[in-house]
Amino acid sequence: MLNCALDEGKLLSGDMTVKLFSWDGQQPYRYGxxxxxxxxNRTMAFHHGGINGYTASYxxxxxxxxxxxxxxxxxxxxxxxxxxxIVNALGEDSLL
Length: 96
Known about the structure:
InterPro entries: Beta-lactam/transpept-like. This is Beta-lactamase. Helix content is 26%, strand content 34%. The protein has one domain. It contains three helices and five strands.
């Protein structure tokens, strides 16, 4: 639901959503989101975080309608690693 709300402009204005997810290839961090080029000339936006024993990762492939959100109530679980494994499993070739 979060990803759909962002994509459909229901959570933020269209202008803010463009600012949030656009990337010129030079400034990798903006508005709390990191950006990275991954294989096959794809761009990914991602945010990882944790507090009080909970961790979360949100990866969004910007050129596709794909988002992976991993939530955990175990502070030692690296949600970023699991999210990367899931993204890699989505294609024949490794994306990350």
